[in-house]
Structures are given as C-alpha cells and as structure tokens.
Amino acid sequence: MVLTRGYMRLGQIGRTLRADRASLHHIGCADVYVERVGAGAPQRPMLSRLLQSAEAGDLVCVPSLNDLGRSLPELKETVLLFRNAGLHLNCILEEINTFEGSSEIVYKTIEAVVHFQTRRHVDLIKLGMQIAAETGKPTGRPRVDSSKVETAKRLVKAGLPVAEAAKKAELSVPTLYRYLSRL
Question: Which residues, if any, are the signal sequence (predicted)?
Fold first, then answer.
C-alpha cells in the first residue's frame, strides 16, 4: 500500500508551519515530518526518520524544493536519497510530481539543473578572478599589517584578553586567533 508522507523544514521566510502542514494534510499526507534544525545543520533527524519509515513506492510531499535542500548540492543529495529509496516526490509549489509519469526523467532533470547551476557558479567565480587578475585587483584575503599583529600578540602575552587585544590593535578576533595559532 502506497503511503503519502509530508516533509518540511522550518525557518523559511514568508511561510508558516500551520499553512504548510495544512496543505500537506489536504493532499493526503498520513504523517508530516517537520524539521526544526537550523538552516546550516548537517544532520536532519526528521528526514532520516522519514527515510527509515518509508517504503519503496511511497510518495513524499514537500511544500517546496527548498525543503529538500538549502543549497544545490544538498538538494541533489536529498533527491538522490529519495530516488535510491524508490520514493516518489511531490513538490507543491513547483508542481513537480514523480508519482504521475516518469519519475526517472524528473529526477534526472533535477540532477542536471543542479549540476548546471554548480558548474555555472564555479565558472563565474573563475571568470571574476581572471578579470580581477587582468585589471590588477587583488584577490583573496587582504594583507594584514604585521605591526598590528605583533602589537596584538604582545598585548595577549601581557595578559589582555584576545578580544580586547584585537580591538586595540584594530584586528578582527578571528584574524588574531589565526595568527596566535601559528605560535
């Protein structure tokens, strides 16, 4: 028996838990798995729970593709998890439904778009760096004034907290920590 399950992540601007949950229940989701971890969290316990309880052929509904990944690589990884588990996918906002028609074509299309966007992003970064080099603009981190670093190191050795030493030497705290770690 095919079950319809819902999955969503909290924290997206302009969306509410109540409305998203209602839309998932309206289309027949037996269970709704709500991810409450932060956007950058590598672990998604509710997604893991959904994948453990789902069986091949089940349908997973999400309000939007954004619920599956906060970045293109994360989206691709999640879509591959669903495909490898034999699950169908229904994205309400984007009107993507692998249950109706060829799921393999939809999954391959999502993968191709992710791959295209990732390569495009890399190409744009390389182009920007090439243009910067040709016009003589520096790339990478700005150089740190070594006299500021030495001043801050002396202050820290004298017992001043790192944050205060960084402020007095006009450095950021992470920059000072980076130089202190080299001692």
Answer: none
